[in-house]
Write a structure and sequence with these properties.
Radius of gyration: 26 Å
Largest sheet: 9 strands, mixed
Structural class: alpha+beta
Helix content: 25-40%
Order of helices and strands: EEHEEEHEEEHEHEHEEEEHHHHHH
Strand content: 15-25%
Number of strands: 14
Shape: elongated
Bound molecules: zinc ion
Distance between the termini: 43 Å
Length: 376
Amino acid sequence: MTAKTEDGTIITLSTKMRREQLREWRNSNLFYCPGCNDTVHLKVGDIVIPHFAHKKDKSCSASFSEGESKEHLQGKHDLFTFFERIGVEVKLEPYFNDLAQRPDLLVTNNTGQIPIEFQCSAIPIKHIKSRTAGYKKAGMAPIWILHTPRKIMALPQGVGIFQLSEFEKSFLTETFPKGINFLTYNPQFERFHYFSSLLHIAGRRYIGLHRTLPIKKQIFPFAQPKNPNEDELQNYATLFLAMRKKFLRNRILHNRKGVNDPFLRNCYELRILPSELPLWIGIPVTHINPFREHPCEWQLAFVHFLHSEKLTVHTICDDFICSFVKNFQGPIDTQLIACMNYRDFLLSLNMESLDNIANFEERQFIELLSHKFLAK
Ligand SMILES: [Zn+2]
């Protein structure tokens, strides 16, 4: 949405300019790309927001606007107008020469400069990481806003189960003490969709709180979603336990490995019926489950490990936890933390051995959720 005129002045298309005005302006001016200095056309259509575009087949590393979807232009325009309206200094697509990066917007407030990226299309995750790293090197913390994924756009507000792709997962942000959040914007309905207090189960599945906020009511710094209230906590627990039950049922029904299935073998050796796995096995202990396995699976393996090594939660040391974690694929550091949290949880139950485990009931499970994750 920016270009240079013949005398080198940088111009930004404002949302206040009328289309007829722009068409007239186009007839009497030449425009150049601020990146490569090539001539660009001012496109003024009836559907897409007015923008500058290179000539066809011209590749420009500083390229912008062209190839952008209608949604991207609309979102960028909405956000730009939003910042102008609330009186926050904002620039559209400023080019950082030393970074060779052009954020969609650059906001300046008393904390400094904040690049804002509105991402509509799936780009390689490494590009997101390298762009973020570029900004951070220059002392700026960017805010990425993802276009609300279509599959979750129409979901009702409140507690629900969300499936996030690897690409979408790369937009999750963790803040303390609020937990894991996901900020998206939907230009079609001019509103933000928040997915907050996310609790990862396994694979792509999360339980979280979905809320929407019309851009008219947005503030900056962006509004932070509230923690779940008591009813919502109860919904988290109900969903988590329903998914746990479903997992256990599927695990028994779709067992193709027979006695070689590690989960069922562990159950057998510990004399536990898989369908009656105690509630204290298979609980969330970190916001993101760092194992590929469901918590039921790796926690049962942990209990089995204690049993076979003749250890108790009082006597297991960090080295043993290390050797346990080595049996799994995935990020070792966070798996270690998850195991230590699980050990601490078992300690809190005053568990001496498997035989004299204190009763752990659904009510305590809700308390655990609320203390550990959701209502800090
Ligand atoms: Zn160019």
